[in-house]
């Protein structure tokens, strides 16, 4: 299981799996999903991927205004709290 999720991996996922057009890929994580044109369905897809790959549960509903940086920090903080295997 990966020990950390990177910004590039998060953005690649949004482009490759959620349908964010490559030309709309943000240059910063200080944007929300809605800022880049994605909706709550994209969030559900993202949270399912995070649960499957990392075993981390994101909130059940998208938090309005939550930045991609905050989502990434949430995942990596949860990963950091685990005991190494």
Notable characteristics:
85 residues, mainly alpha, Non-ribosomal Peptide Synthetase Peptidyl Carrier Protein, Chain A, 3 helices
Summarize the structure.
With 85 residues, the protein is mainly alpha-helical. The chain is built from three helices and no strands. The radius of gyration is 12 Å and the shape is globular.
Topology of this structure?
Layout (H helix, E strand, L loop, with lengths): L6 H12 L21 H15 L13 H13 L5
Describe this structure in words.
The chain is 47% helix and 0% strand. It is mainly α. It has a single domain, classed as Orthogonal Bundle (Non-ribosomal Peptide Synthetase Peptidyl Carrier Protein, Chain A). The mean pLDDT is 91.
Q: Give the mean pLDDT.
A: 91
Could you say how many structural domains there are in total? Answer: 1
Indicate the CATH topology. Non-ribosomal Peptide Synthetase Peptidyl Carrier Protein, Chain A
Assess the beta-strand content as a share of residues: under 5%
* Global outline: globular
Largest sheet: none
Number of helices in the DSSP assignment: 3
| CATH architecture descriptor text | Orthogonal Bundle
How many β-strand runs? 0
Helix/strand order, N-terminal first: HHH
What is the rounded Rg?
12 Å
Q: What CATH first level would be assigned?
A: Mainly Alpha
Q: Class by helix and strand content?
A: mainly alpha
